[in-house]
Predict the structure.
Amino acid sequence: DNFAHRTAVRHALANDKDWQGKFISVALPLIEKQHNEVAYLVPWCQLGKPPKEGGVYEWVTFQMKPGGPALWGEAFRAAINAHINTGYTRLIGVFHTEYGLLNTVHVLWWNENPDHRAAGRHSAHEDARVVAAVRDSVRFLESQQNALLIPLQCSPLK
């Protein structure tokens, strides 16, 4: 809910013997490095839900030029909306970093399967609406990284 809540949860986990014994003691030897950041849902985006169970997610990380949303926010939002309006993929959420590497935006998309996503990407590359919006947004882009996520059975996003 907020940083005080986050602190309380982390404190409770640190003192939870069951969590320490069954999870952290098993997982810790498998961890080589860890990267933490705090990101929030951008004000103009509501957290979405997939239309059905199953499917795959695409986690796209955009490193934007320094200056924050005051500089690149409008163009970035227009590019996201262009993708939403085509229906090639379904938006789950757009998140902006508060702590960690600043000017980072994460976008989570849902697709029925990897082939559906690939077809949507190819269609978007040929869609004048998307091309124009992305062209305006990309001038603020430093880098982009895409990852395909396949949820585990225990995930609430499965």
About this structure: DSSP finds five helices and five strands in the chain. The CA atoms of residues 10 and 16 lie 10 Å apart.
